[in-house]
Write a structure and sequence with these properties.
The complex is a heterodimer of chains A (about 60) and B (about 475). Chain A has helices at about 5-20, 35-55. Chain A has about 60 residues and is mostly helical. With about 475 residues, chain B is mainly alpha-helical. Chain B has 21 helices and no strands. In chain B, helix 7 runs antiparallel to helix 16 (about 380-395). Classes of the chains: A mainly alpha (about 60), B mainly alpha (about 475). The interface between A and B is large, with 42 and 53 residues.
């Protein structure tokens, strides 16, 4: 299964996450800043994980 | 809080857990695999809740609430960085652990590494590393319980007794029926944790934020909504966290217990929903306390202070939810470590190992580890914090050999041993000498040195024969999952 790109996605997403957290989000003092960013990225990761598992881990279920 | 209410809540909660544990015992079969991984027959719902309840300890409702209280939204971002990382790592590693575990009969991740690298010293080394690293982690749970009991009872329950209650209860749940009991009670604890979190948050909203939560926080403590952590602190704390999912023996072992691929999928998305909701709740509560009780010097006291402001019934619910988080973590960690003692230390060192003796040594370790956790807890905060920070760095030395085991045929046993020893020693020296070269924290150096040593030694040594087959199974895991009847 060619899924090694997930490990790169892991590293890349953390890099972007860290850069935004330590730059842009230092300036924002409302819920639309850090709170929204951290929550939405996490929600996106969860939705991605569910879609990925149910489309790529094929072979049916018992 | 009245001590009678406290003891009443504790007894009800313990009896509830014991009933669940009793039914788990009735379902338990014979043998080491049944005791430590429930015969690889756990369904998705229980697997998801045991994974979530194991990962989330009292750190969340006490430690992370305190971090958000003191450091603001950056602390929640740090925890959610772990969340995003854990999901992506699970997508790659969880099915591999499940399939390889079933195919080769692995019980522990250290056994997996020893078999992959065809080396008997590796599982022994990794198992010992797990035990050393987890002593401060488990004792921190006992410490949290001791402080909670002492604080809520107004000192009537002394620290030594409060910190003893938690390991004792966890011991009962773990010893009684092994993984099946731990998984089932974890599921119950997970439900209590989420109910406690929601209950506290909604009470806060109705009682303390009549003008609206978001607008009040934004006008009252706007500084808490910006990320204020310094760069080095962010990296030093977050780096060990974002790889921790595959380093924690109690987490990876939970990919051995699921019955099939369908259950594994349910485990991962179930964990994901729980983790995201619980972390955001904790963030909300921490920010709420920053508005309600400003000026606390120690962040860890934020939650106990809040509990003094809510009705006694709700305070009891939150109290048992925190105890649930602690017990579900400590029993899982210690049970997993005890499986390492039998499988990776006894079985590798004994001349004629038997399953009965393996189980005997494993179960003997359970009370010893719980007692050790309690004794370490008596050291109280200062030493525990130092040891806990060390534990994060201690894990970094096994990152390269563990990841490489699944994806790189060239990776060798000599490189594994050298990278663990050299980076482990260097990290220890940096800690004790209190040196942070270039201002960089010890775990970062630990990982960097381990990577360099691992690649250099691999270049000059031969890979084991098993590597080719192991990486082939890892690469084509869906094919083997079908063959093994996992999907």
């Amino acid at each position: 299964m060619k899924d090694g790109w997930i490990l790169w996605l892991h590293l890349g997403s953390q890099a972007v996450y860290w850069i935004i957290a330590l730059t842009v989000l230092r300036q924002t003092q409302t819920f639309l800043g850090g709170f929204t960013f951290f929550s939405l990225v996490s929600l996106a990761a969860l939705i991605f994980a569910i879609i990925y598992m149910y489309t790529s881990w094929r072979g049916g279920t018992k | 809080m009245n001590i009678a209410w406290l003891i009443f809540a504790l007894i009800v909660w313990f009896v509830l857990g014991s009933v669940v544990s009793f039914f788990a015992r009735r379902k338990m079969g014979e043998g080491v695999d049944e005791y430590f991984i429930a015969g690889r027959k756990i369904g998705g719902f229980v697997a998801a809740l045991t994974l979530a309840a194991t990962i989330f300890s009292a750190f969340m409702m006490v430690g992370l609430v305190g971090m958000v209280y003191g450091g603001g939204i950056g602390a929640m971002g740090f925890e959610l960085a772990y969340f995003v990382a854990s999901l992506l790592l699970m997508l790659f590693f969880a099915p591999r652990f499940m399939v390889l575990g079933k195919k080769y009969g692995y019980l522990t991740p250290s056994q997996l590494m020893g078999d992959r690298y065809e080396n008997r010293a590796i599982p022994v080394m990794v198992a010992i590393l797990f035990i050393i690293v987890f002593i401060p982690y488990t004792s921190a749970q006992a410490t949290g319980a001791g402080l909670l009991f002492e604080g809520l009872s107004g000192g009537a329950i002394p620290f030594w007794l409060g910190s003893l209650i938690l390991p004792l209860i966890a011991f009962v749940y773990a010893y009684w029926a092994g993984m099946r009991s731990v998984a089932w009670t974890d599921a119950l604890m997970g439900i209590i944790m989420i109910i406690g979190g929601f209950g506290l948050f909604f009470y806060m909203l109705s009682a303390f934020f009549p003008g609206g939560y978001f607008s009040t926080i934004q006008s009252s403590v706007p500084g808490k909504l910006a990320v204020t952590w310094p760069l080095q602190m962010w990296i030093g704390l977050t780096l060990p966290w974002i790889i921790a999912t595959i380093l924690w023996v109690q987490t990876t072992q939970r990919w051995f217990i699921v019955k099939d691929l369908k259950a594994l999928k349910q485990q991962i998305w179930g964990y994901g929903i729980f983790a995201l909701v619980y972390t955001v709740l904790v963030g909300f509560i921490g920010l709420g306390i920053a508005h309600l009780i400003p000026g606390l010097k120690v962040g860890d006291t934020a939650m106990p202070n809040l509990l003094g402001m809510v009705p006694v019934g709700l305070a009891m619910l939150v109290f048992v939810s925190i105890m649930s988080a602690s017990v579900s973590t400590i029993n899982s960690v210690v049970l997993s470590l005890s499986s390492c003692v039998g499988r990776d230390i006894y079985k590798q060192l004994a001349k004629n190992p038997t399953e009965e003796r393996e189980l005997f040594w494993s179960k003997l370790f359970l009370p010893i580890m719980f007692l050790t956790a309690w004794l370490f807890a008596q050291l109280k905060f200062g030493a525990i914090v130092v040891l806990s920070v060390m534990s994060g760095g201690g894990f970094m030395c096994i990152v390269p050999p563990l990841v490489a085991a699944f994806i790189w045929k060239r990776a060798t046993a000599a490189a594994t041993i050298a990278s663990i020893i050299i980076s482990g020693v260097v990290t220890l020296v940096l800690y004790f000498a209190k040196i942070k070269p270039l201002g960089i924290w010890e775990p970062v150096w630990g990982l960097a040195i381990s990577l360099v040593v691992f690649f250099v030694v691999t270049a000059f040594t031969k890979p084991p024969k098993k590597a080719e087959e192991f990486v082939e199974v890892s690469k084509n895991w869906p094919k083997y999952a079908k063959e093994l009847g996992l999907m």
